[in-house]
Write a structure and sequence with these properties.
CATH architecture of the largest domain: Alpha-Beta Barrel
CATH class of the largest domain: Alpha Beta
Helix content: 10-25%
Structural class: alpha/beta
Radius of gyration: 24 Å
Strand content: 15-25%
Shape: globular
Largest sheet: 8 strands, parallel
Distance between the termini: 29 Å
Number of strands: 21
């Protein structure tokens, strides 16, 4: 099995949308099993060394699996534990590591723990969740808001108390101040790690610790609009509490009980509560130990340009110590797709950048074929975070994987749970597999280079320049040296870089070359990886 240190990339699978094997319109574990050869182990495969599977646990599906009713079982919609064990064995046979999602902040309100907790204040499970008496005026205990709109407090008629839910009211927050809860959650990790799971992705960890006195969040003085909108407050007290890294360290230590495993923490830096870059530092200082590390999503929010991206990467690299592992991530199931945010040609450049940065990059399913967000009409909306008009939801980036160029895109024999995105006739695995100019060919070449050259994951990073829309940086170490040159502008440029072999390019033929005088010519949105051996 390839060691985590040598994994070339982590490939995220949103199981509802990857492949449906039973024809009910929703992706499943059998569908993932059927497509393992696409990922690795067969001619023309993508060539990724690890997969992360979003939740497949038993759930009422109010938030599509992020509302867990049983952490130690598979929801029948996706299959069974037997099928998961088969998936794990067949992935390992192809030298693919398997990471699963873990939702530590909240359960479903249908979880047995919460059903018992609701029976009264004397319930043995009452303290598994966060309960508070009403405010003196009978209202909510404080002004904390749910990320999905409205108060974060829901009133329970039977006990006369409110329970906390940082997300949907059907997702009550667990009480991480209770050591019994923490042990329960560590046992969940042990259940899956003992089964052979290689890694854990921990969801929404910023919510695990809150202000112990439940103080109100302060107003955001720079926000103008709805006074009860989420953005109208600085969420200083409802998240990132004083014990956060203590809790994360406990999870890291649990994963560390098993050989060569990893835990990745979902974390979005909040500029309203401090410097975004400094918010990543404690993860490495307090919860790292070579096992636990945060996703860096800051690249998702960068403005287009060589200077914004170059500055972001250079500053983040500067805060890392030797041995720290960055996890760059430019797309996921909660954010608009890269090709939608920036454009298809631009997204090829992002691929080249991400897969030549240090650490462990993450690729969201479909990005490797240039998928864009789907068009979701109000009556097709499925995401509970969407407004009444369907705006703001995450359905567009969760549309079915485009395997073929027919109307069902090879995803299902039934009606897909979300409509297929546009341009599926062009941007699909079948059409791109043998096209030398396709997204898929580019990703395969980048992943192959990354697997061949340990310097890409472990070598030094040095920013060379961010001039004239061109970002140039050097990757060096292990006796190797590469220059990466990326043109963020739409016009051709010629730049001076050391002459070498062009190993991978975002364009081919007459649009990218070294001129006779040694200048590298990059077409608009073109890039090159130059081997200086």
């Amino acid at each position: 099995m390839v060691a985590w240190r040598d994994v070339n990339a982590l490939y995220q699978i949103y199981p509802r949308s990857f492949r449906d094997a039973d024809g009910d319109g929703v992706g499943d574990l059998r569908g993932i099993i059927d497509k393992l050869d696409y990922l690795k182990g067969a001619p023309q495969s993508l060539g990724t060394d690890a997969i992360w599977i979003s939740p497949f646990f038993a759930s009422p599906m109010k938030d599509f699996g992020y509302d867990v009713s049983n952490y130690c079982d598979v929801d029948p919609l996706f299959g069974s534990l037997v099928e998961f064990d088969e998936l794990l064995a067949k992935a390992h046979a192809r030298d693919i590591r398997v990471m699963i999602d873990f939702v530590p902040n909240h359960t479903s309100d249908q979880h047995a723990w919460f059903q018992e907790a609701k029976k009264g204040r004397d319930s043995a499970y009452r303290n598994y969740y966060v309960w508070r008496d009403p405010a003196p005026d009978g209202g909510v205990p404080n002004n904390w808001l749910s990320s999905f709109a409205g108060s974060a407090w829901e009133y329970d008629e039977l006990s006369g108390q409110y329970y906390l839910h940082s997300f949907l009211k059907e997702q009550p927050d667990l009480n991480w101040e209770n050591p019994v809860v923490r042990e329960e959650m560590k046992n969940v990790l042990r259940f899956w790690l003992q089964r052979g799971v290689d890694g854990i992705r921990a969801d929404a960890v910023w919510c695990l610790s809150k202000d112990r006195d439940f103080q109100d969040n302060p107003r955001n003085p720079s926000y103008f609009g709805d006074t009860q909108a989420y953005g109208s407050f600085i969420h200083r007290n409802s998240k990132n509490g004083p014990r956060l890294y203590e809790y994360l360290s406990e999870l890291t230590d649990t994963v560390g009980e098993f050989s060569d495993r990893r835990i990745l923490f979902e974390y979005y830096a909040d500029s309203m509560i401090g410097d975004p870059f400094e918010q990543f530092r404690p993860f490495y200082l307090e919860a790292f130990r070579g096992i636990g590390m945060p996703f860096n999503f800051e690249g998702i929010h960068q403005q287009w340009g060589a200077e914004p991206f170059g500055g972001f990467i250079n500053r983040f690299q500067a805060l890392l110590r030797e041995g720290d592992v960055p996890v760059y991530c430019f797309g996921n199931h909660d954010q608009p797709r890269i090709a939608t945010r920036y454009g298809r040609q631009q997204s090829r450049l992002i691929a080249m950048m991400e897969l030549t940065l240090p650490g462990m990059p993450t690729v969201y399913y479909g990005d490797e074929i240039g998928m864009q967000d789907g068009q979701i009409t109000p009556e097709q909306v499925r995401d509970p975070s969407a407004g009444e008009n369907g705006m703001g939801g995450r359905d567009p980036q969760r549309t079915p994987m485009q395997w073929t160029n027919d109307s069902s895109v090879g995803f299902t024999s039934g009606a897909p749970w979300l409509p297929v995105a546009s341009f599926y006739q062009t941007y699909n695995v079948q059409s791109e597999l043998y096209d030398q100019h396709s997204f898929l060919t580019l990703y395969r070449a980048l992943l192959e280079l990354r697997r061949e050259e340990g310097v890409m994951a472990h070598g030094d990073f040095s920013l060379v320049s961010t001039n004239d829309n061109v970002l140039v940086y050097e990757r060096s170490g292990e006796g190797r040296r590469y220059i990466v040159a990326l043109n963020f502008g739409d016009q051709p440029v010629a730049i001076r870089v050391p002459h070498g072999e062009i190993r991978v390019a975002t364009h081919v033929g007459d649009v990218l070359s070294f001129d006779y005088d040694g200048a590298l010519r990059l077409q608009g949105y073109g890039g090159a990886i130059i081997d200086l051996r």
